[in-house]
Write a structure and sequence with these properties.
about 240 residues, Jelly Rolls, 2 domains, seven-stranded mixed β-sheet, seven-stranded antiparallel β-sheet
Length: about 240
């Protein structure tokens, strides 16, 4: 088993006033040649957007883009004609494919928005752009792995153009589970939203990230009431 640890305090950070953002991997003006990606996981941004502010219209292509709101209401508009609001419990996916433009704005003037912005390299290029948004029952992640993303349209959650599986979990203190990787050659990246985990002997706290590969299973124990995200992605 091989591992890589990214402690929360080592992430790239920029406070623009309207946007307070942390980058687990190189992004924008933050560049670390040792932290460009984890397999096909390219971006993991932890964003807080002030009331009434947001990202103006901007382009993407050939990237799978996943947004997971943690707090507040985020309004999305795109060149495909979608106008949607996403909030806690929702998961949004865009396959940028041949190219899209979109904006993301905090719908409320008086409260901030917190969300994770995640990019994954696709396994198919120049596909027709697509948008998907689902609402999940957050109780279904209590002491279990709730699947939110997979490669399969018929599976639980939404899907992307990559052999990747994402799960959210909310473990009570003392809960222990084994995660079995679904595809040979994949790795697992764990991001702690809040709390404290023991992952194969490594202690993780809030906003730590931990990557593991060259293994087919990973043991995870909550040392406290803990919420976390699992991202299984191809390593090559």
């Amino acid at each position: 088993m091989k591992t890589i640890l990214h402690k929360a305090a080592t992430r790239g950070h920029k406070n623009h006033g309207w946007l307070d953002t942390y980058h687990t991997f190189s992004f924008a003006n933050y560049f670390d040649p040792e932290r460009v990606h984890f397999g096909s996981l390219r971006v993991l941004n932890d964003d807080t957007v002030a009331g009434g502010e947001g990202f103006g219209t901007h382009p993407h292509d050939n990237m799978e883009i996943i947004s997971i709101p943690l707090k507040g209401d985020l309004e999305h508009r795109d060149s495909m004609g979608n106008v949607q609001v996403i909030n806690h419990g929702d998961v949004q996916v865009m396959s940028a494919g041949t190219g899209i433009t979109h904006s993301e704005m905090n719908k409320n003037e008086d409260t901030e928005v917190k969300f994770l912005q995640i990019w994954v390299f696709p396994n198919k290029h120049n596909v027709t752009p697509r948008y998907d948004q689902i609402t999940l029952n957050v109780d279904d992640r209590k002491n279990r792995f709730q699947q939110i993303v997979s490669p399969n349209k018929q599976d639980e959650g939404t899907w992307i153009y990559q052999d990747a599986w994402f799960h959210l979990a909310d473990f009570d203190k003392g809960t222990s589970r084994e995660y079995e990787l679904k595809q040979q050659g994949n790795g697992l990246y764990i991001f702690v939203l809040k709390g404290n985990l023991n992952v194969e002997g490594q202690e993780l706290t809030t906003r730590d990230g931990y990557g593991l590969w060259d293994t087919d299973k990973v043991n995870i124990t909550a040392n406290d009431n803990t919420e976390f995200l699992l991202m299984e992605v191809p390593m090559f």
